[in-house]
Amino acid sequence: MAGLELLYASAAPGITCPQDALICFVHWELVTHDYRALGTGDQSGPGDKKSELLPPGWNANKELYVLRYESTDNSRKLLLKAILVDGSMIINALECGSQQVVDLTLNVEDYVNGEHLGDFHRVYKNNKELQTRIASGLVIPIHNNLSKSDSASSSREFPPATSREYDPLRIPPHHPHTSRQPPWRDPLGPFAVGGEDLDPFGGQRGGMILDPLRSGFPRALIDPSSGLPNRLPPGAVPPGARFDPFGPIGTNPSGPGPDHLPPPGYDDMFM
Question: Which of helix, strand or coil describes residue 101?
Fold first, then answer.
């Protein structure tokens, strides 16, 4: 554990409780994984600089430790928070770039001998286990999460699509009426019985309500003057306006029909 003794010696004057010694060990483990301390608190300050030493004021609050770190290659920044709860240290690490969060809980008494804070050779217990837990609980998960994020972002890179694929206003191609299939289903199908009753308006089938305007046959011209004794003047019904005719749909030619006033004896076969 090269470097831990020197680090502890530099911080020993300010170490007054077991949790201070535990934070010192966590700091050393981050340093061995190419992290450097920048400062304390959530926000960066003008005096931030990378250092292997603990920053000034790192243990001003014995219940909450807040430290900021940055990797030696400037690719990652960590925000480390450690809270003491009932003799356990809950450590939370946030990778600022990817917003990945990892947590680790350590029982202080399992790794720090509070009666020998001034003696480096007796202050720590289970050193190998503590080192493994910090590496596997904090450092490695952050690196793995960053690797997954990079691979996921690279897998989402697709070749550029044409404007046709991205055009939300594209109108589908028009098919002639003769090429379309009828909207109703096969009347001989096993589930066709009663379909008109269940769907009278013909959403999926033919329906049972007769609509002469949607019968599919050529539509007769609508004469607005149908049912009136005289024809409406030109322009009385603007083109395209909605208008309910006075009589049945169809043409109403002027004058009487051919059979309106038959001549006398029209049914005499000898005439």
Answer: strand
* 161 burial level (CB within 10 Å; 0-12, 13-18, 19+): exposed
| DSSP string for residues in 176-196 | -GGGSPPSS--TTSTT-TTHH
Residue pair 79/42 in contact by the 8 Å Cβ criterion: yes
pLDDT at 231 over 90: no
Q: How far apart are CA 71 and CA 73, in angstroms?
A: 5
End-to-end CA distance of the chain: 134
For the four alpha carbons of 94, 95, 101 and 106, in that order, the dihedral sign comes to negative
For residue range 131-183, list pLDDT tens digits in order: 999 999 998 988 887 666 555 555 555 555 554 555 666 666 665 554 455 55
**What is the pTM assigned to this prediction?**
0.55
Which domains does the chain possess?
Answer: 4-40+56-149 (3.40.1000.30)
